[in-house]
């Protein structure tokens, strides 16, 4: 049976989702507050209450996605995306690094693996975080995130397709590390192997779906395996 180390060892290019696998972006700047600010902007400036389901009301990307479907190409959508980008940039200063992410990036890069970010967050925010934490050197500008069109958010595979195009690797030689059903669906749409990163049982339940899932709860075992391999070489 294929395991996490098998998947990672076979990959020539690794696509990291950002919020979760790289850091907890909203750990010090709650996403619920950002979503509330977006809904308030919509009501006060555009007299429009975004009809986001109650279960997703605290998810900024859900608010943007619903607004994009209901009013595509509108000034409302542009303003919501602008506000979300500003809040994500602000959140980078208090984001909590995912334990081991930086070390794994270092090991993969040293082994000749190409790295890219594929995220529903603003590419500006992801790039800012990587720069602030000394990680941008591992990505060489391959940061692909949200555009002005919410229809291209994952599970649409747009950002993954762009990453494959700019890195020059095929889907079969790549691997995505993600923590959401949207990540898994986007990877599956292009035939990119997928490694789930799950922090808790609820994340695992949501991510598993009907198909078998290869997943990790931390980067520790992968780091240990790669370090042991490097010592043996």
Rounded to an integer, what's the Rg over CA atoms? 18 Å
Largest sheet: 6 strands, parallel
What gross morphology would you assign?
globular
Distance between termini?
26 Å
Q: Summarize model confidence as the mean pLDDT.
A: 95
Fourth-tier CATH superfamily name of the largest domain: HAD superfamily/HAD-like
Proper CATH architecture of the largest domain: 3-Layer(aba) Sandwich
SSE pattern, N- to C-terminal = HEEHHHEHEHEHEHEHEH
| Structural class by helix and strand composition | alpha/beta
Classify the fold: give the CATH topology of the largest domain.
Rossmann fold
Question: How are strands sequenced across the largest beta sheet?
Answer: 5-4-1-6-7-8
Helix-residue proportion: 40-55%
Structure report:
This protein is α/β, with parallel strands linked by helices and about 230 residues long. The chain has two domains: about 5-25 and about 95-230, Rossmann fold, CATH 3.40.50; about 30-90. About 50% of the residues lie in helices and about 10% in strands. The protein has ten helices and eight strands. The strands form two sheets. The protein has a six-stranded parallel β-sheet with strand order 5-4-1-6-7-8, with helices on both faces. A two-stranded antiparallel sheet has the order 2-3. It is globular. The chain starts with a helix and ends with a helix.
């Amino acid at each position: 049976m294929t395991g996490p180390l098998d998947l990672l060892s076979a990959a020539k290019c690794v696509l990291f989702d950002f919020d979760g696998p790289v850091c907890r972006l909203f750990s010090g700047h709650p996403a619920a507050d950002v979503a509330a600010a977006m809904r308030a902007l919509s009501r006060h400036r555009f007299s429009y209450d975004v009809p986001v389901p109650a279960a997703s009301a605290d998810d900024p990307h859900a608010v943007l996605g619903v607004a994009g479907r209901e009013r595509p190409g509108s000034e409302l959508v542009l303003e919501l995306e602008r506000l979300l980008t500003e809040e994500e940039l602000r959140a980078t200063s208090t984001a909590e690094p995912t334990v081991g992410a930086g070390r794994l990036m270092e090991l993969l890069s040293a082994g000749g693996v190409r790295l890219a970010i594929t995220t529903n967050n603003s590419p500006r925010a992801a790039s800012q975080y990587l720069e602030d934490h000394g990680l941008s050197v591992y990505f060489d500008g391959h940061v692909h995130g949200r555009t002005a069109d919410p229809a291209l958010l994952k599970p649409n595979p747009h950002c993954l397709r762009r990453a494959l195009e700019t890195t020059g690797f095929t889907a079969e030689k790549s691997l995505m590390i993600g923590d959401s059903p949207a990540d898994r669906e986007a990877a599956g749409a292009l035939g990119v192997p997928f490694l789930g990163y799950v922090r808790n049982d609820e994340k695992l339940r949501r991510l598993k779906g009907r198909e078998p899932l290869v997943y990790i709860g931390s980067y520790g075992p992968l780091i240990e395996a790669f370090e042991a391999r490097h010592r043996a070489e």
